Amino acid sequence: MIVSLKWLKDYIDLDGISTETIVEKLTTSGSEVDEVIDKNSEFRNIVVGYVENVEKHPNADRLSVCKVSDGNETYNVVCGAPNVKAGQKIPFAKVGAIIPNGKFEIKKTKIRGEESFGMICAEDELGISDDHDGIMVLNENVKIGTPLSEALKLDDIILDIAITPNRADSLSHVGIARDLSAIFNRELEPPGISLDYEVTTKNDFAEVIIENEIGCPRYSAVVVKNVEVKESPDWLKEKLTNIGLRPINNIVDVTNFVLHEIGQPLHAFDLNTLAGNKIVVKNSKPGSKFITLDSKERSMLQSDLMICDGGKPVAIAGVMGGENSEVSSATNDILIESAYFNASSVRKTAKHLGLSTDASYRFERGTNPNGTLMAAIRAAELIQDITGGEIIKEVIDVYPYIIEEKSVSVRYSRVEKILGFAIEANKIEDIFIGLDFSIESKDDKSITVKIPTFRHDIEREIDLIEEIVRIYGFDGIPAVDNISVSLSRKIDELDFEDNIKQNLISIGFNEVISNSLISDYKTIDYDNSIKVLNPQSAEMSRLRTSLIPGMLLNISRNLKVKEEDLKFFEIGEVFSSNSKEIKSFDDFTENENLIIALSGNKQNKDWFGSEEKFDFYYLKGVMETIFSDLFRNHKIQQEYITENDEQFDFQFIMMADSKKIGNGGKVCKELLDKFEISKDVFLFEINLSILKNIVDRKNKFTSLLKYPKVYRDFGFILDKNISYNEVVKTISQSSSKLLKKVNLFDIFESESLGSDKKSLAFQLEYYDESKTLRDDEIDAEFWKTIETVKTKLKAELRG
Amino acid sequence: MKDKIDQVRADFKEDIISVSNKVLLEEVRLKYFSRNGLYASLFDEFKVLPKDEKPKFGKLLNNEKQESQKEFDELSEKINSNSAENKESIDLTLPGKKTEIGTLHVLTQTLNEIKSIFKGLGFSVYTGPELESDENNFEMLNFPDDHPARDMQDTYFINDSFLLRTHTSPVQVRLMKNSKPPYRAIMPGRVYRNEAISAKSYCLFHQVEGLVIDTNVTFAELKGTLVYFAKQLFGEDVKYRFRSSFFPFTEPSAEVDIWWQPKGKEGKWLEILGCGMVDPNVLENFNIDTEKYVGYAFGMGIERMAMLKYGIDDIRLFFDNDNRFINQFK
Asked: Staple B220 to which of A420, B191, B194, B236, CB 3.0 to 4.6 Å?
């Protein structure tokens, strides 16, 4: 909310308190000041100038060359406005000024050969209004050379305050002044009205009927006759301009003024447009259309509350008035509406219309039900003063069930229990009085106060404790020096992930973190993917079902900046639906996945070796390295698919206890093309959520081997189509448990072997945990193995 | 003679299988091809053969030797290309053969730092799902339906009752649903906000929330704990302030600012976290006796902490995963 410091001072004496202190105290008490705009400095180097002389620019038809005086000196200024004339007083931005709208600095310049030392400003350039019909011409009485901020009474300090949703009472100047009054212990002087009125539900000129009392618990209205609709007086225009509002006419300006003064939204109807001189508050007809003040047609729902006259709707309650009853220059008599609407009802209407106004913003948060009549009269009196109209002293007020002030108590002991620090009873009482809470009763244990109806947020003891500490200041609470910790078992649910991450970075992988929202086009397993109801853009409309798209996007981005040797991993959540509609947690699955990806060179050209690219076997090795220790008691199997599918040219699948936990391989071209990647990518994605449950990380000690290991090497020539796996299987099956390890150390293919042959060379490791093996024991076993391989696989022993 | 030639050939084949470096290679060369090597001695023997036998064995010996020599040369080339030490004389000033080490994402590093501070204070670490129910994300945390408080957190909805969590508080909800106080835990994780992407905001970020509920907890303890945290993370002389704020699930609520003074620029207060005493309505939702138990909660954005700590000026850098960015945090 925008607040003018000058305006605030109408209701509280802030003499002797610096702006910095005001800003600091407002902020720490919960009204966070986001920005302080000093209008004086905004208009620095912009003064009242006097146009002494205007001549046509010698080289440009539409420009003129003016002599402008700032009272001391006369400057040459090139001006493009058609309305510039000698003898005018104008806003003159001198060299060094920063133009408020656009924030550009005025410099000495040459325009089509003519020197120019400044600029004559239009209203829009100064940020005063949207007017760009030529330069702004000032009142003749202002003194030449006066700073413009002073001449226009813009010498104000503007605060942009973030008001939290619970503090509807702070959405006005009086509301902010009330907090300041409690903080600085200075008296609040709210605006007053005369008491010379009679209250009725119907007078000679208008009648109010509430049909929906839940949507509208109170409706007050005041009629002012014979108003003259015209421009507002300067003081009113200045007040509104300073907080960034555009003056419209004296009636609308007064309703806006009162809204920003005391927070009550008002609406003025042209009384003569109200059929039957009636106001009826009732729900909209379903499917009806309504044209609001901004000339837009709105579709109304039956749940929307409308203000109607004898026949038609004339306003959307609490949101915006209608074009059909708008105050215009032809208006003579007006009806000022000041109502209390149900917060939730206004919120629903504003939300479905996608229309947030100053009024709806306040009603949604809760206005003061007991302030409506006073606000209407306040506005009527101002309008009478300004326009010379006549207030009808029989004021209308329909308020079937009076909303009473609540009583709330607070125990001093509870204040201390919550805060860990005692605040004296009389300090607490002062705070309550400062906030306009009246003391109902008190004793040495507790205090009970009546809560004004503008404070919807205070209902419970804890709410009062918050008020106390808010005004007292959190800085006053001492921070403890030590804490006590229960000795119950502590858990870190990220241990598993941390461990895997640590292993991966130790073998050179970089961790990435990617967006989980991706485009339809890039979604893998589109049919089971979950769509976001209200995405920012089509680019981020689906939840990822896999970490692959995000990873490919990362690789693509890196390739574009010539980062080409990539070893990435990511751990993140993936989502897929199990049912058409998500009604419960059973209808979708959220898993934690790990992906590793490789692209480019494993080894770049260097003085000790030539370059080596990442390949499938490197990928496979990483997965085996990272996961080999995690599954002591579970069988890990791999399956291989050499045909390409939608993601991979060829791939391997990891299974644990016959359950698929992950797959990966060489990414196929079609998928890479989607991401504009022209290099090979190898990646593997694995489900950590499953893994977490089956993993066995309990390390166990086994005594170290006391007896020597024995090695035997041999090579076979085999048919090319016999896989490594088959050979190893045959070796293992034909060996006893003395065989502990089989290591393939050479693969060789050549013309001399024959084009359909290959040679594989293995080293076998044997040992016995309980004794030293004799050569003849090993040889017997070794030769048996060789014979089996020879016969079963039609292999030929080499050498 | 033929047997001898065959035996040498067979031995040679056997020997070269295990040759993996230039030392072994040299051994093989000396054994078979040197002046006193096995082939040299075979030729010596050949020279003294009867004349009529020479053509037969000469051809065989030559063929066999050439075959061995060819295999040896192939192996030699293979080994030498892998072994630069061979080509170079020893120059100890050559650059070392570096091994690569990867790096955790700067957000993970920052989280780990935050985690270790709180673990040091006896906090547990819990996690939970990102796709949550409205009940866990809002209702149980005292966000009334149709209340402007819900606008504070722009939400991505899946439908009326499911959404992408806007904070990690649902993990607190799950903890309170499933176990009894006391609690002392932090909840790190990814959260989503439906905001346009810019240098300052992204559609998601990472949070660490904390929850402590016990019989003797106070705001003064909350303050002490968070001041300790700020000092550990930002240094002993960090300047901070607590200012009143509003969150539906805590009361009183506050935000913590630290004074930020970049070199050569104007200093300013920057918000680093939100906190407060757990609202009695929330405790009551889990049947926790509000007279007996008091709690506090806090929450912070990891991105924000990292941006402050390292002077990162664009939140999108975290999710672009440019290797040049990632490698800056090794």
From this structure: A420
Closest CA to B148 of A349, A352, A217, A344: A344
Residues in chain B predicted with pLDDT less than 50, given as ranges, are none
Strand B124-125 and strand B183-192: pairing? parallel
- CATH number of A443's domain: 3.30.56.10
**Cβ(A218)–Cβ(A401) below 8 Å:** no
- C-alpha torsion angle, residues A78, A84, A86, A89 (rounded to 10): -100
Query: Between residues A44 and B178, which one has the greater pLDDT?
Result: B178
Query: Does residue B121 sit at the A interface (CB-CB below 8 Å)?
Result: yes
Residue A799 with chain B: CB contacts under 8 Å: 10, 13-14, 17
Indicate yes or no: CB of B190 within 8 angstroms of CB of A573.
yes
Cβ A483–B194 below 8 Å, yes or no? no
Structural domain includes residue A700 = no
pLDDT of residue A579 exceeding 80, the answer is yes
Q: Which of A515, A533, A557 sits opposite B159 (nearest CB)?
A: A533
**A191 within some domain:** no
Predicted confidence at residue A400, as pLDDT, reads: 94
Alpha-carbon distance of A544 to A520, in angstroms, equals: 10
Q: What's the CATH architecture for B106-329?
A: 2-Layer Sandwich (3.30)
Please tell me the pTM assigned to this model: 0.84
Indicate if A350 and A458 belong to the same structural domain. no
| DSSP 8-state symbol, A126 | T
Whether A696 has a pLDDT exceeding 80, the answer reads: no
Residue A600 contacts residue A610 (beta carbons within 8 Å): no
Rounded CA-CA distance A353/A196 in Å is 40
Report d(CA B154, CA B194) in Å as an integer. 5
- Shortest distance, CA B65 to any CA of chain A (angstroms): 16
Residue B141 CB-half CA count within 13 A: 26
Lowest mean pLDDT among A358-362, A716-720, B165-169: A716-720
Question: Looking at CA atoms only, how far is residue A73 from chain B in angstroms?
Answer: 35
Task: Please give the Cα distance from A81 to B60 (Å, whole number).
Answer: 109
Please provide the average confidence, as pLDDT, over all residues in chain A. Answer: 92
| CA atoms of A410 and A462, how far apart (whole Å) | 8
Contacts of A451 (CB under 8 A, 6+ apart): A405, A406, A407, A408, A437, A458, A459
Enclosing domain of residue A435: 406-473
